[in-house]
Amino acid sequence: KAGVTQTPRYLIKTRGQQVTLSCSPISGHRSVSWYQQTPGQGLQFLFEYFSETQRNKGNFPGRFSGRQFSNSRSEMNVSTLELGDSALYLCASSLVGVRDNEQFFGPGTRLTVL
Amino acid sequence: AQSVTQLDSHVSVSEGTPVLLRCNYSSSYSPSLFWYVQHPNKGLQLLLKYTSAATLVKGINGFEAEFKKSETSFHLTKPSAHMSDAAEYFCVVSVNGNKLVFGAGTILRVKS
Predict the structure, then answer these.
(1) CA distance A94 to chain B (A)
(2) Which residue of A77, B28, B69, B106 has the fewest C-beta atoms within 10 A of its own C-beta?
(3) Which residues of chain A have pLDDT under 70?
(4) pLDDT at residue B66 above 80?
(5) What residues in B contact A104, CB-CB < 8 Å?
(6) Which residues of A touch B41 (CB under 8 A)?
(7) What does the DSSP 8-state code read for residue A103?
(8) Residue range B93-109: average pLDDT?
């Protein structure tokens, strides 16, 4: 089975722009979660989607949003980029119906905001 | 709120010697705990998970962890370190199903 894929792998944007990141889960996985990793704040949960609905949300401003499509692929969007949004954004997918099932992580998208 | 604290930001061991990475958790009920590893420029990989079955959990690559409720600890151990174990390790607690709360991470250095 192919793993979780994320595109693009690297992005450079300037302040004020917006960006869209994409995540394709493992085939059959219907839950997709997003995390932000920075040297200062570590790994933080952004949100989780299941069946095209946001099921869980972290403590991030409304500039961070996401969505999930019927094929379980997910996108996250960051509007009005700030320098502090520079980070590695990780996507994880998992099966549902099993409590605390393993989450499989993709390689991440490295976003640099100039 | 549920959280985890990794007690060491860096650990250095010699190849062939034991590894101990320490993690304490805070939870109002029986938690689900995980250890993940992140190699440079790679994604996170699950090493092992505790979900209230056996308190001693065995994982991949010879790692294991013991859940100790009395000490609120979930330390990660390996009897003999290998050079390929050099990476960053995260202790993680699951909150509300699929929301993972990560510790700050421990960078493991293995000296030859």
Answers:
(1) 8
(2) B28
(3) 97-100
(4) yes
(5) 46
(6) 107
(7) P
(8) 90
* Phi-psi map region of B95: left, alpha, beta (phi>0 left; psi -120 to 50 alpha): beta
Both tokens assigned to B34: 């995980």
- Chain B nearest C-alpha distance from A17 (Å): 26
B107-B110-B111-B112 Cα dihedral, nearest 10 degrees = -160
Q: Return the closest-CA partner of residue B29 out of B96, B100, B105, B101.
A: B96
Strand partners, B72: none
For B2-43, what is each residue's pLDDT tens digit? 899 999 999 999 999 999 999 999 987 778 899 999 998 788
What is the per-residue pLDDT for B15?
97
- Confidence check: pLDDT of B64 > 90: yes
Inter-chain contact A4–B43, Cβ cutoff 8 Å? yes
Sorting pLDDT into bands at 50, 70 and 90, what band is B63?
Answer: very high
Q: Which residues of B touch A100 (CB under 8 A)?
A: 32, 49, 51, 94, 97
B67, B33 Cβ separation under 8 angstroms:
yes
Strands in A19-24's sheet, in edge-to-edge order, are: A5-7, A19-24, A74-78, A64-68
Q: Which of B36, B41, B98 sits opposite A33 (nearest CB)?
A: B98
pLDDT for the residue numbered A97: 62
Residues B105-111: what's their mean pLDDT? 97
DSSP-assigned states of every residue in B32-55? -EEEEEE-TTS-EEEEEEE-SS-S
